[in-house]
UniProtKB/TrEMBL annotation, chains A, B:
Keywords recorded for this protein, A-Z: DNA-binding, Transcription, Transcription regulation
Pfam families the UniProt entry points to: TetR_N
Lineage: Bacteria, Bacillati, Actinomycetota, Actinomycetes, Micrococcales
PANTHER family to which the protein is assigned, alphabetical: HTH-TYPE TRANSCRIPTIONAL REGULATOR BETI, HTH-TYPE TRANSCRIPTIONAL REGULATOR RUTR
The protein's name: TetR/AcrR family transcriptional regulator
Length: 176, 176
DNA sequence: GTCTATATTTGGATAGAC
DNA sequence: GTCTATCCAAATATAGAC
């Protein structure tokens, strides 16, 4: 298939941006078109409706998840450090997309949760393989969720080294 | 001062409800008035504008935070178990209010973050006193944030016992 | 204190020119 | 493929009756 027109990508980037920084309420077609540098008519040529725009963003995130999980599994620092580090990585495309879709899922588009659940499961699987103990893996992903929660509220990220030290302690301590 | 009219409380409860279940977008004056069983005019008598309604909810949460922190510090199970348990307590008034205000803070009312930051600091202080190690306390509050994140997306809460066991392990292991 | 209009603005979507 | 113009519905807010 032909490469998707650049305008489509610009629209999705603008939509993401507004969702993350100002929330679902502010992500109107007018605002998205403005930020993308196209007219509302132009936007609606690429995405026939607001629902189609939402679907476009969810599909884009789904693709990014596949790539991110592969990167995570191949990361030299290991899956745990990769996950915890990138959870507050506000500038990376993947994390912005994740936060944007979370915004939609909490709001008027609950079906967007599917993509988020997929990411959660993939993360848990990869972390479980790395740390062995499934309970520790679940806790690590929960910590990552906590970091996302704070990031979405604009708070400062926690110290990565501190968290890794705690996870190391969990991993090296035998269960009761 | 005289007791606040019951209608005020009903309006705040309705606002909270809609924010938590359907998001900021759906929390229109019409929808809130409907759910509270009053007319839009009636609502606007008590809260002169949407901003005033938001301020009312933030102030209400601020009061609830004070009470919750006192309960947490006095909890027989201890602050850690109390915090982690109530983080997925979708039915309690405090937690619904917290999620509702988080919804506002992520959206068009960033000043609502003040109340959330207050809660976060109070939780961290109380947990630090209980576990000793500030790093462990920060991790516990991060786990609690993660649970809130999931709850706000409608996912099932994690196993409390599993988390407490992990925290116990952290507490009883000397730092490297 | 609470209601029923009603004014004003904004958001989503269509039609049709270029 | 992108724009302008326009329609319709929804959202905030006001005025004034009860």
């Amino acid at each position: 298939m032909p490469p998707p027109p650049a305008a489509r990508a610009k629209v999705l980037a603008a939509f993401t941006e507004i969702l993350v920084t100002t929330g679902e309420r502010a992500a109107t077609l007018d605002a998205v078109a403005d930020r993308a540098g196209v007219s509302k008519g132009g936007l609606l040529y690429h995405f026939g409706s607001k629902d189609a725009l939402v679907d476009g963003l969810v599909e884009h995130l789904t693709e990014l998840i596949t790539a991110d999980v592969a990167t995570m599994r191949a990361a030299p620092e290991g899956p745990v450090a990769y996950l915890l580090r990138t959870s507050s990585d506000v500038d990376a495309e993947f994390d912005r997309s994740y936060l944007a879709v979370a915004e939609l899922a909490r709001g008027a588009y609950p079906h967007a949760r599917g993509a988020l659940d997929t990411a959660e499961r993939a993360w848990t699987d990869a972390v479980t393989e790395a740390v062995g103990d499934p309970a520790v893996a679940r806790a690590v992903v929960l910590l990552s969720d906590g970091i996302y929660h704070r990031t979405s509220l604009g708070a400062a990220p926690p110290e990565l080294d501190e968290l890794l030290e705690l996870v190391r302690r969990l991993g090296s301590t035998p269960a009761a």
